[in-house]
Amino acid sequence: MSDTNNPDSAQRSTVLADDAQVDLEAEFQASNVQEVLDKLDRELIGLKPVKTRIREIAALLLVDRLRKQFALTSETPTLHMNFTGNPGTGKTTVAMRMAEILHRLGYVREGHLISVTRDDLVGQYIGHTAPKTKEVIKKAMGGVLFIDEAYYLYKPENERDYGAESIEILLQVMENNRDDLVVILAGYKDRMDRFFSSNPGMRSRIAHHIDFPDYSAQELLAIAKLMLAAQNYRFSPAAEQAFSEYLKLRMKLEHFANARSVRNALDRARLRQANRLFACGKKTLTKIDLMTLEAEDILASRVFVDGQPDSEPGADTAVQK
Amino acid sequence: MMTNPGNRITQGQFSFLPDLTDQQITAQIKYALKKGWALSVEYTDDPHPRNTYWEMFGMPMFDLKDPAGILMEVNNCRKTFPDHYIRVMAFDSTRGVESPAMSYIVNRPKKEPGFGVVRQEGPGRTIHYTVHSYATDKAEGERY
């Protein structure tokens, strides 16, 4: 990255001799990346392929930095990415982390994340799209531009759709302003595949296609515990048992959105817990009472009663992102 | 004219210096962004010192974090108006300040004819002076 404060920084950085030695470990420590990677491991359950790829990218950027010390020039690696996966597999969360990691490695200047959808990029009438898309790109410069549901940008069935124009501008910027921003696309796998097959230019400009696998039942339970811990709640042992039963049943039903469904289930459990505390008529409650979710808070779910998701029909699809 | 050394217009910051390079412009933009000011790009072909309000090139750019986006606008403006005066303005919207905090020219015409003095005879042998930009004798858009 160019350091504008001292225009001659490129010339000033001394080139090391051919037989000099550089300390990869020290460089790694200096970048504080380990901290972010550890946080990623701690706070994101599962997602093995994703974590592996992020580690690889971090390693590549570090090695690149060391190579620069020997004046071994190489092209700046392109880091535009594409995240595919089912709803609730943590695509947005990882994108935010990505911005932080790239910032620590000095790949992007600011490390902020601008999250947009089709509406922010594509206009309603002729001549509306270009300024809109450019506005968003300008905002994202120095950071990461995250385009959620990217496949909506291109609607092949509508010839007069302005999405194609937006894609064109994006492609240009991805190529010419590689140092200024990283574009991350995200969406469901099958639709993204169709999107790429109709936009070959897009596919070739994106170096990293990362697939987010679905979570297993154990992973979802671990996620639930993390979420509860973050909100200062916890399961009683019986409730934990009940919740893992709940997950097994819920995963078989339709509209299952991984971690997002878990979050919704926990929200409903908290409602039931509050209701139970009211109904039991105890005058005084302890801290433990207020923190603990009991089995009955989980078992009251409609999933157990009549094998239906709790949300009213259709409500779950509305929140699917 | 003695007051216009090298036939260059001297308005705003840095105007006695040689033209800023893109890198220097970026550094200045960065400074303004760090202060939390909103930057905008403006252009004109009427460089009279009393001409305060130039044409806006696009909207003022609020909530940008990085100079790259603004430099892109500057270069767009240069491409559109290669022979106009173009300036970058930084607006400080702090309550009580609410005025431009920086303003510097980033593009100027190749040939700047400068200004002439116009004298007007008033009552009682008084003379009123004003400056007149030679360029403005032509119509707008054909001046440089």
From TrEMBL, chain A:
Protein name: CbbX protein
Keywords: ATP-binding, Nucleotide-binding
Keyword ATP-binding: yes
Residue ranges of every copy of the AAA+ ATPase domain listed in the record: 77-216
GO molecular function: ATP binding; ATP hydrolysis activity
Protein family (similarity comment): Belongs to the CbxX/CfxQ family.
Entry superkingdom: Bacteria
InterPro entries in the cross-refs: AAA+_ATPase, AAA_lid_6, ATPase_AAA_core, CbxX/CfqX_mono, CbxX/CfxQ, CbxX/CfxQ_RuBisCO_ESX, P-loop_NTPase
ATP-binding found in the keyword field: yes
Source species of the chain: Sulfuriferula plumbiphila
General function of this protein: Seems to be necessary for the expression of RuBisCO.
From TrEMBL, chain B:
Keyword set, alphabetical order: Calvin cycle, Carbon dioxide fixation
Domain Ribulose bisphosphate carboxylase small subunit residues, every copy: 10-109
Molecular-function GO term, any one: ribulose-bisphosphate carboxylase activity
Lineage top rank: taxon: Bacteria
Gene3D superfamilies assigned to the protein according to its UniProt record, in alphabetical order: Ribulose bisphosphate carboxylase, small subunit
BP GO annotations: reductive pentose-phosphate cycle
Presence of the UniProt keyword Heme in the record: no
InterPro entries reported in the protein's UniProt record: RuBisCO_ssu (IPR024681), RuBisCO_ssu_dom (IPR000894), RuBisCO_ssu_sf (IPR036385)
SUPFAM superfamilies: RuBisCO, small subunit
Function according to Swiss-Prot or TrEMBL: RuBisCO catalyzes two reactions: the carboxylation of D-ribulose 1,5-bisphosphate, the primary event in carbon dioxide fixation, as well as the oxidative fragmentation of the pentose substrate. Both reactions occur simultaneously and in competition at the same active site. Although the small subunit is not catalytic it is essential for maximal activity.
Miscellaneous comment text of the record: The basic functional RuBisCO is composed of a large chain homodimer in a 'head-to-tail' conformation. In form I RuBisCO this homodimer is arranged in a barrel-like tetramer with the small subunits forming a tetrameric 'cap' on each end of the 'barrel'.
Subunit structure: Heterohexadecamer of 8 large and 8 small subunits.
Similarity comment text for this entry: Belongs to the RuBisCO small chain family.
Name this protein carries in UniProt: Ribulose bisphosphate carboxylase small subunit
UniProt source species: Sulfuriferula plumbiphila
